[in-house]
C-alpha cells in the first residue's frame, strides 16, 4: 500500500510518498505554485518523475476551506476536490484536509526534538490540543481524542475580528484593514501582518519604511538593535499573546498549544523576552487558569505531510 | 434504571428524574441556591421529597469549569465533584458536565417547536453545531458527531477579550472592565452586561440611570419607545453579531448555531430588526461564507436537564 501525501500552501506545494504513518525518506519534492496550472498538474508531474508508482491512498492538505471533499486555495483561487485527486493519482481512498487539520493529525507523530518550548505547562496526555498556524495565512485546528482515534476540527479563525483593546490597536487595525474597513486576526498575525505593523510603526514615527516580513524577522535576530523592528516584534507578540489566550478560552487545550508555520518559527526566539506569557495570561479573574496551557512551536516544516500520512494510517 | 439529572446555575438549581433520554414528567423541582449550603444539600433534599428512589445513574450540569470530574460554580464558589454526587445519590455511574456541554447534549432531543429562527441557513444534519449561552454568564459548547455518538466540548469563551472595533467599543469596554482593566465578552453579553451597556448609554447622554437587565429587556418590548433602552439593545445586538460571527469562524458550525439562556430568549424578538444579520456577516472577504450559518434560539428553559438525560442514555 503506497500512499501519496501533499501539502498545497499559498506559495509552494510539497508532495511525497507515505509508507504507513511515515513520509518515505527522500520522496519529498517541492513545487512553486506559480509555475503550474493547478494541483492536478503538480500531482501528475510528481508521479511522472517517480516512475508512476501504483497509489492506493492519497491525502492532500490545502491552505483553504474544505467542505464535502472540495476546497479552494485561499490565496490563489485554485479549486480542488477528492474526485480530481482520485483521477490523477488512481487512489481509491482519497481525503482532502484543511492544512491546519493535517497539522493536527501530525501531533502524535512529531519527535520531541521537533518542538521548542515557548510557555511551560502541564500538557495532559489525553486532553484537547490546539494548533495555531502563523504563516502566509493564520488559522487553527483543535485535536480531540476519542477512543483510539482523533477528531480534528477545521476553522477559519484567521478571518475573525481583530480584538482591539486600546487606541493604538484601533489605529493599527484601521491601517491594516481592507477597503471594507474590516480588520481580521490574519491581517496582523500573518507574514503580511508583520509588514503592516512595521509600516505602521515607521509611519507613526514619521520615517515610513517598507520591509518584507523575511527582512523584518531577520533584522530581529541582528545584534544591531533596530528600534522599529523591535517595536514591530513587540506589538506582534502582544497581539499573539492576547489572541492565543482568547483561543485557549474558546478551546481549553489542556493537552497543549502548538504553533506551526514560518512566522511562528521565526518569532519563537523573541516571544519570551517580548513578554508573551504576560499578554497570554492577562484574562482578568481567569488569569490563573491560563497557567494550565503550555505553548510549544513545531520546528518540522513538513509536519503537514506527516499529518497526511498519519491520517492515512489512522486506526479504523 | 432511574437517573437523576440536575442543572446547577448561578441562581437556581433544577433537579429531576430521567427515564431513558427523557426528563420524567412532573419530576422537576427548582431550588434557590441562596437557601442551601451546597449542591449535595440540594440533591439530598430533592431525593428526600421524592421518597428516596433508588438512583443508578446521575448527570449534573454546572455553570462553571469542570476538569477531571470536579468543578466550581463560577458565580457562587461551590465546589462539586463526581464522588460527592455518587455519595449523596447512591448512583454508580456519575457524570459532571459543564452546563453548556449539557445544552449541547440536549440538541438531538429538542422539539422543532422549541426553536425560534433568528437567521436562516442550510443546517447540514451531520455537521458541527455551536451552542452559545447568554444568561448570568456567557459561554459556548461545540457539538461534533462521530459515529453514533457525540463529542461535546467545554469552553470558557465568555472570559475571552471583548473585540473592540471602534472608539465607542473602547469606551464601553473600559466602563465595563474590572479593576484590572480587562473587559471580557461576558462583561458585555451577560445579563450584567446589558445593565452596564444601559448605564453607559444613559451616562454618556448626561442622564445616568440604573435599571436591572430584566427591566431593560421588559422595556424593550414596550410600545412606548425608550430611546436609551433601544440604544442599549442595539449595541448588544451589534456586539452579539460580531462575537457570534467570530465564534462561527472559530468552529465552522455548518449544522447551526443555537442560542440558549434567559438573555438569549429575551433578546430574540429584537435581533432581526436591530440588524443582527449584517453584524454577524460583516467579515470582510469571508462575508459570503457567513450565509452558511443558521442561528436559532432554544426556547426550552429546561434543555440542560434534557441534555443530562440524553447524556445518560447515549449510545455506548
From TrEMBL, chains A, B:
Belongs to the bacterial glucokinase family. One of its GO terms (cellular component) is cytosol. GO terms for molecular function: ATP binding; D-glucose binding; glucokinase activity. This is Glucokinase. Gene3D superfamilies: 3.30.420.40, 3.40.367.20. GO terms for biological process: glycolytic process. Signal peptide: none annotated. PANTHER family: GLUCOKINASE. Keywords: Kinase, Transferase. The keyword Transferase applies. Pfam families: Glucokinase.
